[in-house]
Amino acid sequence: MSTATTELDHDDHHHHAPSGIKRWLFTTNHKDIGTLYLWFAFIMFLTGGAMAMVIRAELFQPGLQIVEPNFFNQMTTVHGLIMVFGAVMPAFTGLANWLVPMMIGAPDMALPRMNNWSFWILPMAFTILLASLFMEGGGPAFGWTFYAPLSTTYSNDTTALFVFSVHIMGISSIMGAINVIVTIFNMRAPGMTWMKMPLFVWTWLITAFLLIAVMPVLAGAVTMVLTDKFFGTSFFNAAGGGDPVMFQHIFWFFGHPEVYIMILPAFGIISAIVPTFSRKKLFGYASMVYATTSIALLSFIVWAHHMFTTGMPVGAELFFMFATMLISVPTGVKVFNWVATMWRGSLSFEVPMLFALAFIVLFTIGGLSGLMLAITPVDFQYHDTYFVVAHFHYVLVTGAIFSIMAAVYYWLPKWTGKMFDVTLAKWHFWCSLISVNVLFFPMHFVGLAGMPRRIPDYALQFADFNKWISLGGFAFGLSQLIFLALLIKACRKQGEPVSAQVWEGAEGLEWEIPSPAPYHTFDTPPVIK
Amino acid sequence: MKKIWSGVLVILTSLIAFTVSAESTSTADQYQLNLRKGATEISGQVYDLHMLMFFICVVIAVLVFGVMFWSMIFHRKSRGAQPANFHESVKVEIAWTIIPFIILVVMAFPAAKTLIAMEDPENSEVTVLVTGSQWKWHYKYMENDVEYYSVMATQQEQINNKFEKGHNYLLEVDRPLVIPTGKKVRFLVTSDDVIHSWWVPDFAVKKDANPGFINEAWANVIEPGVYRGQCAELCGKDHGFMPIVVVAKEPAEYEAWINAQEEVQRKAKEEEQRLLAMNMSMEELMSNGEQVYMRACAACHQPNGQGLPGVFPALVDSEMVLNDMAAHIDIVLNGKTGTAMQAFAKQLTMRELAAVITYERNAWGNDTGDMVQAKDVNAVMTGQ
Amino acid sequence: MTERSSNSQSNNSKLVLKLVGVVIGMFGFAFALVPLYEVFCQVTGINGKTSDTAAVYESIEVDHSRTITIEFITRTNTGMPWEFKAQTRKVEVYPGEMNQVDFYVKNTTHKDYVAQAVPSVSPGTAALYMNKTECFCFNNQPLGAGEEAIMPMKFYVDPQLPKDIKFFTLQYTLYDVTASAEGVAMNQG
Q1: What pLDDT score was predicted for residue C178?
Q2: B34 touches A: beta carbon within 8 Å
Q3: Which residues of chain A fall below pLDDT 70?
Q4: Rounded Cα gap, residues B213 and A433, in angstroms
Q5: Is C179 exposed, middle or buried (0-12, 13-18, 19+ CB in 10 A)?
Q6: Cβ(A57)–Cβ(A110) under 8 Å?
Q7: From the candidates C41, C89, C122, C165, which should be mutated to test the interface with B, based on the most B CB atoms within 10 A?
Q8: Phi and psi torsions of B179, nearest 5°
Q9: Residue of C nearest to B189 (CA)
Q10: Could you tell me if A118 and A176 are in contact, meaning their C-beta atoms sit under 8 angstroms apart?
Q11: What is the Cα–Cα distance from B192 to B202, expressed in whole angstroms?
Q12: Residue B190 and residue C169: Cα distance in Å, rounded?
């Protein structure tokens, strides 16, 4: 399968894989790197999840039982940072590494050595962040949004480590994004035109552009925090002529596109899975592409809806309210398209489809509460309460994370060549589905009743629901151990061998290569019909 | 398929089950599931808007999920469903772009109307300057010579599960804000250190307190009553422990109250001057000092004076506490710019300040033997 | 095939260069947001900050058809042990008319301090029309131990002020900037 030319292209392509740790340290193979990313994301998911367990244990009943308020704040902060930058984003990057080359008929990512780097600096970043928890004064305790001046003048010295680790995470994401863009632009097989690309490739391309547009802005924001804290600048310090609210503008200029970075690839995954198990082509492919693009563009003009209570003039509030409401139109189009794909299809309910269906229902619930949050006057009541916490966990846990699980179940047989343990998978699905709703649904109620977020203790009228929320949380945490067991079994290559197509209705280049996918695929470009 | 239905059933029953169980075991009477209508006309409008949005969302959800569940039931492969072939329809796609857009425009009108009303603080009759600091609120009546700090009143023992928790656990303060009913009261909100957010759900008022900047909000409370809220923006360690309590009184009662307060505050100042001449004994200083310390200092420097390493400095064996009395008095009075150390000159009386400084210099083995009297504090305060 | 892959190699580098350019540009953009935000605020009044440079009063037609009420709030921040009061708590002015309000400060301590006053206006839009020709907030204000001073602020309200604003609040917060002012003096000296 080797030719002299590909040898030039990717020099260590064929020196057959050094074994053991070296194989993983020096690998430039997109499948290896994809696997690394996915395992790393899963470990981070469990780490961030463990912090969520600490939070839920403290909130199980009123009063302070387990942790001090200052440590509680570190837990909420690091939980958020790890889940966003350590779990969801690397998982999507891992999926992109595995799937984008196979979906567009490319032999590998365009920049394999940079690919290796962009992965291996990530564990460094999180080691630094987690290490800061054990230092004097503890880790970051100002929320993952690190609002100034709490994160500048009033934070402790480990803030420098926080800034440094966010920089590294940013560099990693940017390198990953550049790799995806270059791969999609330059490495498509002949005949793989733009409008023939699978939606996962499309959504990732748009995500990658969002990443290179906003991750540098985040880097800028943390740099300003660093210089404000340690080098006497006054970007956010009123005494020196700065403005603390400006921090929020800069942060959310990054932060809102970031939200879509964490959901657009999910749209691509669902758009792959629903047609397969409906045995029917995706409804409205072109409108899906346009909807994704318009969501991405709109995401740049809605940032201030996170800041309605900071005291903006009415005109600005109205503008951001209308712009935000507008986003629900293209998002609605996507949901309608998925439902229309299922309509008069021939449906079956394998595990990936179960997760995809749960995604559609629960993500829509999160989307609808998002629409309610867009209405400025009512947002004054919802803002910074558990209603918001419920909203973004519906979108990120039952949205982004369920889509990642759906993707893993969908493509896992292709990666390992064996069908995963379906019984365990169904246990995982049903336990997760039920517990996640016990966990997050009552948060709507306590939020509306007036419980602020990020508090280690609460008034008595919130006690009953919080008990249920905590129980749901523990159950959801335990359910993920089923997933861990299943993944370990799958990696040991246990299970029934599967065909190349794996799923009856699956279509696309990745289903035309044998299962398990060989170490090198598409050394000769495939023919696109 | 049965599994999906049983799953849905399980979710629904579990939701209902714990709603009911929560309802029956609820300890507080203001237990609720939904947003409150609140105590002002605006908060009522906000509630209506919330319900309108909620029902629109429910209708959308029922329609979308209805179609989805329909195909999940009737277009199943196991029922022998054959897939249809369509995969686009310009008409349908345009329809479901335009119709949601129209719904949004309809929703935007009442929202904009309420918003504009909320952001119009003109013609107010009472103005209160609300200042947040770590972790207390300060209220200053702009029309009267009355100002005071409002600190959470829940005992530390309740929080640490040593005493039984009271009815208004974490939602009670030593001195609530008092406002008149039936009048437009304007709140000017600002902060001394980090960003806080002044939130009273019954008024639908939530405004960020930004250091160096002011924000405005207003409320016109209809019924007299006690309204409770909390800080809504993460502001450091004790963010969860800075509640807000507002007491709304009939205008006449309010007038009487505010006049009495003016009198009380004037008298307190006179009394303070009179007491300057009186020295306190070491025992008196230490016992008063301990009380003041627990109330005002222990949140950061900790009850044992050890602080939180890397966050709040220790007072035990501190160079300043052991050796530099002038600097010690100065930092307690005036705080330290750019740190969480606040200025206590206006928060405590001179006697309290003297007591707490004496306490810090003699407790936990510091044993300097120094006594600080109110007149020493006064000397630093007035620059003599 | 050889040609294709070397082509794609150079295509890759070109694209990577462009993307890296975008990344560097966006990093710069984050910092450009600081002045942009200031400009944006000066255009929209989004943060309610008044201009920090003196306006020039040109004989503007005074609008006698309406009056504007301005309320002054004075605060000292943590670590700033001065007395600070507006001599007038509220003024009623005609748009276009020159006015002066005096502020009283006293350093009650036995140390020298340098203060910086930070203005803030609510509603923010009004800040755009609040033109100060002379203000203590344009510069640092040093005051020796025990000294007191009257600090004037001369201003006029632009007659262009939207009709629906009849009332606005101007707050000054005094910050202790002794340390940084000394740093600057050392550098210059």
Answers
A1: 83
A2: yes
A3: 1-17
A4: 45
A5: exposed
A6: no
A7: C122
A8: -135, 155
A9: C122
A10: yes
A11: 25
A12: 13
